[in-house]
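Shift notes (night). Ran Lipase domain-containing protein while the centrifuge was going.
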Amino acid sequence: MVELGTGVFLLWLLSTCVRGTCVGDGRNITCRHSLQKRSLLFSEKTACYRDLGCFSSGPPFYHPVYRPLSVPPQPPEVVQTTFLLYTRRNRNRPVFMTRRNAKKTPFDPSALTRIIIHGFNDNQALTSWFQRLKDVILDRADENVLIVDWSGSNRLPYTVAVANSRLVGAQIAHFITYLYKTVGTSPESFHLIGHSLGAHIAGYAGERLHKLGRISGLDPAGPFFRNVPEIVRLDPSDAVFVDVIHSNPAPSVLRGFGSNEDSGDLDFFPGGGNPPGCEQTFARSLVEDLPTEALGNLVACQHLRSYEFFIYSFNPNGCLFVGVECNSWPDFLSGHCNCGHEGEKCAIMGMFSPTYAHPTGKHYRDRRMYLKVGPERPFCVHQYQVVMHIHSFPGHYLTYGLDSADVDITVYGKLEKMKGRLHI
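Came back to this:
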């Protein structure tokens, strides 16, 4: 389906490249190539930034239909990416970590490092999920938590934010490489957790590092990332293990903000990609959350639900988000899928995905997992598959001439019972 606002670019035909000019200040260089696209004056530009490399706005980052507006990222001094370090020693007072002070911070190179990356039009003043996720991570283990703040360059126009995401990914990769070389950590010990555009930022970082430990993509952004090569978006090759939660997948921005394409080793679709409860969430958010978060839940509740699921996957009450491999959501609801004889067809959504991802030692890749979720926090529900076998004994036959029947079933649990009617 053609994205909103791209119809004018359908005039694009074959391209031929002619001449170009470059300007720079010794550190950063921007080149403009006059491209006769036989279209509406698309002009490919290349921006080069010291230590980070060059970024072209041309293919594959340009496409006449799916990425019709493409520009190179803004300079680092405009993007102003910062790294805020939290540990158990400074869980409420972040340290602004840079290459200059890395050795003087509480950063522990022997511990795992979780890097939280926000998406479009998001920052710590608007939403609290950064801090909530940081807190549950540190409650569980003494690890390094880095919050990547690029909120100075993630607003409208969306095209510029998309371009800047490439630069932020490169900056993260460069920073991890620096830590590896100076304090003795390794890319395998890093886990990047990105929401929306942040998921693709994590992919750009992983692409440069090759052996990044893990990426968790929380409803990766859809606009400008659908129907494009893997180098443009998050994909399974970006880390040793990539798990993705699709809470608002859609084929176009008119129907949702997330991508409906598989992006990881395990792609989870809670509620079939249409989780329930957003009406209740908005009402609760008005009371419990920041006003800006309540507004976000009104506009993009399901898109934001992905990080809620990830935060509540730490739930200490013993409930796990169990995803079941299945061809489709209707097949899942019809009971056509289960965990298999050894649990090999099930995996846990959220923080503990790697723990349960390989029950038989087999590597999962490109698998769709479906699960039910509740409408309210903590969202996790226990799923049961009840199989009832109905048969007649030899010599006994149903002679009532009925083509179908309704069977009333009552399932008894420790706390309550549930009644239902089965049509057979």
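The helical segments are 76-79, 129-140, 158-182, 197-209, 278-288, 291-312, 329-333, 353-356. The chain has a mean pLDDT of 85.
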